TrEMBL record:
Family named by the database record: Belongs to the MSOX/MTOX family.
Protein name, entry field: FAD dependent oxidoreductase domain-containing protein
Keywords linked to the UniProt accession: FAD, Flavoprotein, Oxidoreductase
Cofactor(s) of this protein: FAD
Presence of the UniProt keyword Membrane in the record: no
FAD dependent oxidoreductase domain ranges (all copies): 17-95
GO molecular function, one term: sarcosine oxidase activity
């Protein structure tokens, strides 16, 4: 599935500046930053499964991701804290998608 571009034309007739292959965590982040910089981005890859009881789900999709603010390496701990502090920004920009829920 591709995104970006404008108008109601089919995805095959749209022009993109870049195609990001992989809709996982890194691919989605890359596409987001490219789009925020003004790029017309096509994000390519399978959608997450709607039914959690079938096939792969676990650690490869949002429900299975673990976030922590501590790490034996101070640099990774700092990066984790900075990332978590930006989750509300991502939620606002996505129109309210709940990205993180503290337990």
């Amino acid at each position: 599935k591709s995104g970006g571009g404008g108008g109601g034309a089919s995805s095959s007739s749209k022009n993109f500046d870049v195609a990001v292959v992989g809709r996982g965590l890194c691919g989605a982040a890359a596409a987001r930053h490219l789009a925020k910089a003004g790029g017309r981005v096509a994000l390519v890859g399978p959608l997450e499964q709607a039914a959690r009881s079938k096939g792969v789900f676990g650690a490869h999709h949002d429900e299975g991701r673990i976030t922590r603010k501590t790490d034996p390496d101070d640099v990774w701990a700092l990066l984790a804290v900075r990332s978590i502090d930006r989750y509300d920004e991502i939620k606002r920009e996505s129109g309210g998608v709940q990205f993180y829920e503290e337990v």
